[in-house]
């Protein structure tokens, strides 16, 4: 029996912040450990000291290297230079798999992969939306243009990996049924993360951990926190942990409402450190794909209160009492009040640990992704009887 050969895999994405970066790091670690050669290409303009430390920890696993280039969020003339630089780097690495994540990364990976295939390469092109362009509304000029581009890029795609059923449904509704191979592959977390993280002695009542932009709802959290104080008629405490483009605006909002001594704004840190700051994690997003913070918090034994958006109900349970409508600070406040004051609230609302563990492990995610890659490799399609190991 012939063993399946190791693959040369490159992940291309824009911003090394948040869920996409976490997803790629997990795939890199798992696939490197399995003997594959992996590289990363991403933006050099985004991220700070925290992200730099993550890259330094990941670098020994990046046998195909780390390449950081200016890749801006908005579409513009700068994309031409970024695409050319990405093309030269990817061509030199001779990948078997080119996996684009998010709208910008997905476009770059598939366009560059297509150019390489015209030149004789047999690289297989994959795409994971991670929400991205799917957050746009369908009946808008921008939305229609973006979804038309997504449909066009499908012709340059061997396979699509959706991180949750919600994302897959959104794609079908807005772009159309995928014309090529696709898989639902849930995000997963490392084995070491399935362990309780007790709150410190000076822990606060509530915590928001994530990117500081309106899509993630820090302003909703601040509003709901203040309403919860009014409900309970006493001062409470909270932390907002993260970095992002709207940080200064949230800091101003906290000060303007007189909450500066009760809501502390802290920079991004390792999630295990952030979990020591509180036992109740609030995820008030206006839109999501399948956020890691929910998986990480449940695995760490935290109470989680979250918006009913994206794939979050797939993690917490569709009927979970911990879910609230998005952009509804009053309803969010009501559940925050209950979580803080109702004995046994966590045990009644959080998923059963063992079943959660089995469903959302990084090892399972990486194995399923590798199976998708191999199913679309040219030699696999030409010799379907050869076993995939």
TrEMBL record:
Transmembrane segments: none annotated. CDD domains: GT4_PimA-like (cd03801). Gene3D superfamilies: Glycogen Phosphorylase B (3.40.50.2000). It comes from the Bacteria. Residues 203-349 form the Glycosyl transferase family domain. SUPFAM superfamilies: UDP-Glycosyltransferase/glycogen phosphorylase. Residues 17-189 form the Glycosyltransferase subfamily 4-like N-terminal domain. InterPro entries: Glyco_trans_1 (IPR001296), Glyco_trans_4-like_N (IPR028098). Pfam families: Glyco_transf_4 (PF13439), Glycos_transf_1 (PF00534). PANTHER family: D-RHAMNOSYLTRANSFERASE WBPZ, GLYCOSYLTRANSFERASE. This is Glycosyltransferase involved in cell wall biosynthesis.
């Amino acid at each position: 029996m012939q063993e399946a050969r190791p693959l040369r895999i490159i992940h291309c994405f824009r911003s090394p912040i948040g869920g996409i970066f976490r997803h790629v790091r997990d795939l890199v670690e798992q696939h490197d450990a399995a003997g594959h050669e992996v590289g990363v290409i991403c933006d050099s303009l985004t991220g700070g000291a925290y992200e730099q430390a993550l890259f330094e920890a990941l670098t020994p696993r990046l046998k195909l290297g780390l390449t950081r280039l200016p890749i801006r969020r908005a579409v513009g003339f700068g994309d031409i230079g970024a695409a050319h630089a990405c093309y030269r780097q990817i061509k030199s690495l001779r990948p078997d798999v080119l996996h684009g994540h998010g709208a910008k990364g997905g476009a770059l990976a598939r366009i560059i992969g297509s150019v390489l295939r015209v030149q004789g390469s047999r690289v297989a092109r994959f795409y994971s939306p991670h929400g991205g362009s799917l957050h746009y509304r369908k009946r808008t000029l921008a939305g229609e243009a973006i979804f038309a581009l997504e449909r066009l890029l499908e012709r340059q795609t061997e396979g699509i990996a959706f991180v949750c059923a919600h994302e897959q449904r959104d794609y079908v509704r807005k772009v159309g049924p995928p014309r090529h191979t696709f898989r639902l592959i849930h995000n997963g977390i490392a084995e070491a993360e399935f362990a309780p993280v007790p709150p410190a002695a000076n822990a606060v009542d509530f915590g928001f951990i994530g990117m500081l932009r309106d899509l993630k709802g820090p302003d909703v959290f601040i509003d709901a926190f203040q309403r919860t104080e009014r409900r309970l008629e006493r001062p409470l405490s909270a932390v907002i942990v993260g970095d992002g483009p709207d940080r200064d605006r949230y800091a101003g909002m906290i000060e303007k409402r007189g909450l500066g001594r009760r809501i502390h704004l802290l920079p991004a840190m390792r999630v295990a450190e952030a979990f020591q700051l509180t036992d109740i994690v609030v995820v008030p997003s206006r839109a999501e794909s399948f956020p890691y913070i929910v998986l990480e918090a449940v695995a760490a034994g935290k109470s989680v209160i979250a918006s009913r958006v994206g794939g979050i109900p797939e993690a917490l349970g569709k009927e979970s009492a911990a879910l609230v409508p998005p952009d509804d600070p009053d309803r969010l406040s009501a559940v925050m009040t209950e979580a803080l004051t109702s004995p046994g609230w966590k045990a009644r609302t959080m998923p059963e640990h063992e079943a959660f563990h089995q469903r959302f492990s990084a090892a399972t995610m990486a194995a399923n992704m590798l199976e998708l890659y191999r199913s679309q490799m040219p030699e696999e399609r030409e010799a379907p009887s050869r076993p995939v190991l």
